[in-house]
Amino acid sequence: MMLEPFFLLDRPVALALALLTVLLLHSLGKAWLHYLQHKRPFPGVPMAKGSNFLFGHFGAVTKKGSFQESSRILEVDSANEFGQTGFWVFHLPFLSVNSVIDARTVLNNEHERQPPTLFKHFSKNFLGEKNLLTINGREWKFHRGM
After folding, report:
1. Which helix (DSSP H) or strand (DSSP E) does residue 89 occupy?
2. pTM for the full model?
3. Which of 7, 25, 51, 83 is the most exposed place for a label (fewest CB within 10 A)?
């Protein structure tokens, strides 16, 4: 028996296959959205509530109201007992810490950062091309004691 192309199948069989394909794509789409909304920026660190699958926590960061209210929702209400919270701004993972010791640990151990492109462009106008906010790698390790 030779396999027939999809468009040459009987109408009920073609409709059943089309319906099955739509249902499969719908369930895969729902599973992917669930994964994106519950994916943690850093394993072992709690994630702030209110993540959007497309924009991350950008909506919560730019919410109307005061900056203190937004930071309280993101950083304090969702933090673990050590004051650590992970959140997304678009597709970039961010870590918020409330302890000076944690901040020093992160800054001493992490030397590869990915600031947004617009931030790099505008900060170089104010701070210069070799500023501590945008340099990486060996330069960062050399100058981080400042």
Report:
1. strand 84-89
2. 0.54
3. 7
